[in-house]
C-alpha cells in the first residue's frame, strides 16, 4: 500500500505541475515542475524554498489548533539551539558524547521527578515520541513475563495486555505488531476511565501487564493508578498472580508532578514498573521526542539491550529506531535548565487555569453538557445536551469554527459508547486567557447561529476528526 493512500490523500492519474510565479523564475529555470516526480534539473535554493513555503503556508494556524497535544511554540533561544544541533545523530554517542550525557541527565531528572527509588541507577531512554516509548514498555513487559513463564516451565504463546477501551492507537499497534492479545475494559457512563472495576474478569496468568493512562486522549481524564494497583493487589491475594502496571503518561506525567504533587500515580506505587511521556507534548519541546523510564534497571530485561560497537564506541541501546535527531533531547535539557520546577509549575498551572475557565464557560452554554472539567490535564470534552436540538450536531459546530480558523475535533467515543459524540479542547503553552476568550466569543456566536436554524443541517460530508 503506497504512503499517499495510507495518509488518505487522493491519487491523481495526471496531476498538474507546480506552476511557479513568474516573479520567482530566474533566467534559465523551468516555469513549472512535476508534482509527483523528482524534477530533471536543478533549481536555485530561493526557488525551491518558495515552492515549499507557499505550500506549507496553506496549513492551519498552529495557535488556533485546539485539537493537537503537540508543542507548536518555543522561545527564540531554543529555536537557535535547535538549528545549531540539527545535524546531531542521537545514536552516535561516540561522536556526540555530550549529547549522550545530556540524554542520561534527562532520564535521571525524570526518574527523580517520578519518585524512582534510586534515580541515578535506573534505566531509561529518549525516543522519537511516546508511541515508540510505549512499544518499548510493552516489549519489556512481555519479555519479563516470558522469562517468568519459562522459568516455571509454562507456555508463552498466549500473552495478553489489559487496558481501557479509550487507549491511544499506539497500544493497538503494539498488540498487533508483537502478537499480544489486546484485552480492553470498556469505558461507560458509570466508569468513564479504567478504575479497577471488573479487572479480575480480564487478568489471568497470561497477562503481561496493565496499562494505566495519565490523561486519556479522548477526554484528558486521569485513570486512578492507585485504585488499579489496589485491584491488582486483591487479585494477587486471591490468585497469586503478580501483575505489574505501565503508566502511559504521554501528557499527564509532565502535568501531575507540577500541579498535583500529592496525587500518587508514579513509582511511589510499587506495582508501577515503567512510565513514558511525550517531551513534545507537555514537556514543551518540538516534535518528536518521547521518554521511557523503568522503576529500576532490573525492570528492563538485559536481553533486550543491545551493546554494539559503533564508530569506535561501545553503545548500549534499546530502541526501535537507530539514527534519529539529537536536537530535541538538547531542547528538553534546555527547558529543564530554563524553567526549573517552578517554571514548569507556572506554565502547567496557567494551562490548567485556562482549561478550567473554558470548561466552566462552555458548560454554561445550554446546548452542552461537560464530560469532564479540565482539572486533570488541561484537556476537556463536552457533548450535546440531550434533546437540545435536532437541527445540528457537534460536527456542524466544528465546521463553523473551522471557518474562523479554530480546529476543534468532534468524534465518537470508543467501543460501547460509540454512539456518543464529543468535542474536545486541548490547552497548550501559549494559548492565553485572551485567546481563550476570543475562542469563547466565536463559539457562542456559532452556537447562536446554529440555534437560529429553522430546518436541519445536512448530516453528510463531515470529515473524520483526528483525535489521537
From TrEMBL:
- What does the UniProt keyword field contain? Decarboxylase, Lyase, Pyridoxal phosphate
The organism encoding this protein is: Acidipropionibacterium virtanenii
Family of this protein: Belongs to the group II decarboxylase family.
Modification N6-(pyridoxal phosphate)lysine occurs at: 281
**Top-level enzyme category:** lyase
What name does this protein carry? Glutamate decarboxylase
Which cofactors, if any, are listed as required? pyridoxal 5'-phosphate
Give its E.C. classification number.
4.1.1.15
